[in-house]
């Protein structure tokens, strides 16, 4: 069955790139531009993976992860955070909130797919 | 994302375009928030929002290999990060530095977009100042690593023993042991031993808890780091022991625990409306199509009116419903193109800052009404005139600090930029508290250049208007700053091309105020359809105050200015349309025809004399410039329901044309200025 992935980022560029790469790799991808929008999308369907940016307006990535882990139907779904190299502390924050893994920006399409396959059963 | 060229089908160019579009928005947001910060709004939301803009710009820059941009935005971001964590105080110097950095960032983004090479050491002083600020605050600054060198060095086969005990925490974060085992197996030959001794009886089993632990033996040629990388995501949530069996192994390096840094709670209060990005061409096509639809609908309506209503009740009902929907559709489509003027306003503070520094003046800019919405096509054309007006105010209006102090004014000058919607138009004002227009000087120059006859007596307003004359470039008025070969006449022309008008009010010694009045949209007009003789005209409804048929006793002649209408104690000049456009078979008598009172920005209220009102209609504006040539007194044309062309009147100009016509020659004589209009009517 096609795996469904939710890509959450306030940057349209990032969403486009993530979405394009994953769709090409055969995944079904939905997008949301912040944590709130993501929670909305999540209530409307079942996803196999969430990829989220951390710095976003309205609801940031950390709050999104906490929300999802706090008992939604997606609490056991892997969550990848998008982070930049200098953000060591952010990785730790993301992990502490319940992220499954991370992807360091900038990444290339192969890295993205490899990381997705790494956490997505 | 340094995309390898093998990925041919990966539309990098398209992503790149999106990225730079996004950058423009991010830079605008950055600018606005920095302005807020400068004005003392130092709350966390503002700081977070500022950080986010730079962070997002940096994020994408790496993806497109814009190294200069990554380097600069990284420094910028680090400073902002320290600022939002309150490790650095938002002092006046820091705020100035941020503004400078934001300006430099905009330039670097622009260079990256155009793939221009920046001069060496571009903004090096700004970067250095930011690093100083960071170091001053004891902030460690990490240089962004290039793409990490991957260890590809192949080793001879070795054997590792890996002991792995997941914590329950690991499962809660959706890390699946099975996936880790699969990954290990990709590295070499793997044998697995599972210890299920702590597995409880089924009844006591918590399905979300971890009970198993594993010992793996891996024969592989990859270095230890690669083995450890498999457990990268879980190393804090498990007991892990990787041991090189053949060599006496030391203890596993402790995982670098990085607990520093507060948890980011960047939940900005600023709510962002949901939006989608659509190509402007698509919207324009939609607007055009809807325009055509409205014309067809008007034709249908007209045909429907001639049908007997009792015979075709449903057809007529349908036509009415269609008219209603077409109108709503049109309004909705026009609303898509409406944008707040903020995007243009946001660019002005930088211009003021830079120019003030060059001129050695102290100036602040205050903006208001930036959320006023206006059609996108108008907004795009607004930047140049507005920039010119701002430069003009700074260069000619605002005095040097010493001169201001001597005149008893604050050393810092103020430029006020405002937008407001007024009776179906948008009015943008640029006012300054500078020296105002020196009328004597202007008049002397104009006389010297023969622009004004020696004996002519001009009112203050008329003198002020001289600055809009072409070729009015004197050394005193045009400097290398606001001059640049572009005078106020060009600004005026640009504004008029948009269906707008510009006017100036000034008080010597106290300042000037330029006012731009623009239509909200260029595409549709609610109009009153009127007839004069055999011709049909449209008067924009927004301009109309009332219609009436006056008594003979209410019309009074005024020497050299035609007639005025006495209306409730006021005297309004009358404009005879048949005279303006030389139409011979018109009624021409206001007491037998209709007077439409209109409000115009420059001439106040004016009565337009027409024969008859034909009705009210929404019309799609077709440009005369594009299809014919500009005609004074006419702002455009439209196609009516009966398929005929009707001209849309530019009410503000009519009075002036009429005065000139009556002041200079007899009403009966043909006014050559209006010839084209007449031809146009007959051609239609």
Automatic annotation (TrEMBL), chain A:
Pfam hit, one: Response_reg
Transport among keywords: no
Record carries keyword Phosphoprotein: yes
Coiled-coil annotated spans: none
Top-level lineage group: Bacteria
UniProt domain Response regulatory: residue ranges: 4-120
Residues with 4-aspartylphosphate modification: 53
InterPro entries tied to this protein: Bact_response_regulator, CheY-like_superfamily, Sig_transdc_resp-reg_receiver
Keyword annotations of the record: Phosphoprotein
SMART domains: REC
Stated name of the protein: Response regulator
Originating organism: Bradyrhizobium aeschynomenes
Lineage of the organism: Bacteria, Pseudomonadati, Pseudomonadota, Alphaproteobacteria, Hyphomicrobiales
């Amino acid at each position: 069955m096609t795996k469904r992935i939710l890509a959450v980022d306030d940057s349209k560029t990032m969403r486009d790139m993530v979405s394009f790469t994953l769709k090409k790799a055969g995944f079904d991808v939905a997008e949301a531009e912040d944590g709130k929008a993501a929670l909305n999308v999540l209530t409307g369907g079942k996803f196999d993976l969430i990829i989220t940016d951390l710095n976003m307006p309205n609801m940031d990535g950390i709050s999104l992860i906490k929300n999802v882990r706090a008992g939604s139907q997606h609490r056991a779904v892997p969550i990848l955070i998008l982070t930049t190299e200098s953000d060591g502390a952010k990785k730790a924050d993301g992990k502490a909130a319940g992220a499954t893994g991370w992807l360091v920006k900038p990444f290339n399409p192969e890295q993205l797919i490899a990381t997705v396959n790494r956490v997505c059963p | 994302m340094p995309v390898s060229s093998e990925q041919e089908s990966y539309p990098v160019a398209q992503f790149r375009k999106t990225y730079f579009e996004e950058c423009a928005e991010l830079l605008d947001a950055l600018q606005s928030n920095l302005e807020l910060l400068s004005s003392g709004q130092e709350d966390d939301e503002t700081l977070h929002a500022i950080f986010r803009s730079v962070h997002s710009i940096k994020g994408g820059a790496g993806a497109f290999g814009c190294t200069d941009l990554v380097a600069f935005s990284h420094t910028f971001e680090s400073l902002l990060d320290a600022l939002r964590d309150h490790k650095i105080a938002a002092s006046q110097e820091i705020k100035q530095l941020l503004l400078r950095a934001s300006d430099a960032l905009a330039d670097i983004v622009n260079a990256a977009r155009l793939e221009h090479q920046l001069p060496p050491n571009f903004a090096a002083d700004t970067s250095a100042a930011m690093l100083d600020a960071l170091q001053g605050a004891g902030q460690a600054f990490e240089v962004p690593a290039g793409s990490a060198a991957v260890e590809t060095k192949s080793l001879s086969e070795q054997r590792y023993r890996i002991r792995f005990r997941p914590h329950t925490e690991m499962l809660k974060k959706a890390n699946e042991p099975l996936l880790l085992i699969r990954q290990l197996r990709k590295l070499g030959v793997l044998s697995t031993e599972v210890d299920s001794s702590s597995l409880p009886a089924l009844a006591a089993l918590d399905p979300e808890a971890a009970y198993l632990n594993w010992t793996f033996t891996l024969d592989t040629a990859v270095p230890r780091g690669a083995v450890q990388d498999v457990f990268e995501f879980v190393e804090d949530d498990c007991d892990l022991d990787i041991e090189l069996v053949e060599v006496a192994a030391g203890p596993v390096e402790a995982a670098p625990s990085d607990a520093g840094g507060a948890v980011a709670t960047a939940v900005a209060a600023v709510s962002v409306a949901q939006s989608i990005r659509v190509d402007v061409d698509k919207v324009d096509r939609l607007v055009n199509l809807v325009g055509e639809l409205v014309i067809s609908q008007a034709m249908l309506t007209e045909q429907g009116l001639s049908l007997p209503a009792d015979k075709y009740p449903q057809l007529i009902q349908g036509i009415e419903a269609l008219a209603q929907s077409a109108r709503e559709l049109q309004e909705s489509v026009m609303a898509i193109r409406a944008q707040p003027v903020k995007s243009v306003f946001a660019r002005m503070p930088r211009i003021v800052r830079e120019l003030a520094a060059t001129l050695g003046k102290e100036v602040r800019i205050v903006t208001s009404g930036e959320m006023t919405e206006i059609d996108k096509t108008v907004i795009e054309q607004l930047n140049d005139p507005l920039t010119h007006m701002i430069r003009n105010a700074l260069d000619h209006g605002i005095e040097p600090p010493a001169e201001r102090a001597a005149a008893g004014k604050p050393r810092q000058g103020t430029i006020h930029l405002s937008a407001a919607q007024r009776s179906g138009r948008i009015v943008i004002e640029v006012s300054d508290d500078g020296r105002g227009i020196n009328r004597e000087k202007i008049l002397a120059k104009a006389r010297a250049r023969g622009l004004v006859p020696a004996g002519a007596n001009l009112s203050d307003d008329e003198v002020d208007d001289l600055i809009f004359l072409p070729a009015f470039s004197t050394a005193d008025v045009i400097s290398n700053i606001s001059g640049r070969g572009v005078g106020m006449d060009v600004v005026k022309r640009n504004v008029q091309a948009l269906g707008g008008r510009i006017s100036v009010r000034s008080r010597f010694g106290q300042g000037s105020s330029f006012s731009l009045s623009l239509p909200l949209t260029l595409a549709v007009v609610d109009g009153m359809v009127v007839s004069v003789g055999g011709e049909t005209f449209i008067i924009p409804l927004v301009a109309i105050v009332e219609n009436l048929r006056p008594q003979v006793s209410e019309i009074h002649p005024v020497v050299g200015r035609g007639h005025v209408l006495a209306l409730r104690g006021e005297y309004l000049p009358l404009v005879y349309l048949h005279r303006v456009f030389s139409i011979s078979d018109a009624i021409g008598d206001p007491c037998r025809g209709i007077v439409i009172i209109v409000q115009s920005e420059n001439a106040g209220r004016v009565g337009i004399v027409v024969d008859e009102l034909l009705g009210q209609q929404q019309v799609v504006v077709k440009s005369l410039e594009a299809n014919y040539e500009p005609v004074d007194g006419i702002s455009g044309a439209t196609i009516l329901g009966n398929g005929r062309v009707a001209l849309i009147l530019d009410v503000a100009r009519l009075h002036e044309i009429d005065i000139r016509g009556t002041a200079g020659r007899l009403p009966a004589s043909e006014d050559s200025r209006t010839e084209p209009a007449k031809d146009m009517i007959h051609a239609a």
